[in-house]
Design goal:
By secondary structure, the protein is mostly helical. It has 4 helices and no strands. Helix 1 packs across helix 4 and helix 3 packs antiparallel against helix 4. The longest helix is centred in the N-terminal third of the chain and has 20 residues. The termini are far apart. The model has no long low-confidence stretch (mean pLDDT 93).
Length: 82
């Protein structure tokens, strides 16, 4: 079963907002839990989510406090042109 277009659009908008919050350093742990644990039917979003999680595992700080995660979010925004 595939996600309805509206659900896919909402997921894309939510993840885009999350990436921008991460890049700005204003994402919360609740934001992280909601978006990093979720799985996306959109392949680009799922790949981006997995990249963020992998980067977060290389830093001992909380993901929302990590400059590595902020840099990765900025790079994903640039790469995905969002």
């Amino acid at each position: 079963m595939t996600a309805a277009p509206k659900e896919t659009q909402q997921a894309h908008e939510g993840f885009t907002e999350f990436l921008h919050l991460l890049a700005e350093g204003s994402a919360t742990q609740q934001d992280w839990r909601r978006h990093a644990i979720a799985h996306y039917s959109d392949a680009a979003l799922e790949t981006a989510r997995m990249e963020l999680v992998k980067v977060s595992l290389t830093d001992s700080r909380m993901p929302t406090d990590s400059s590595k995660v902020r840099d990765a979010a900025s790079e994903l925004i640039r790469r995905l042109a969002i």
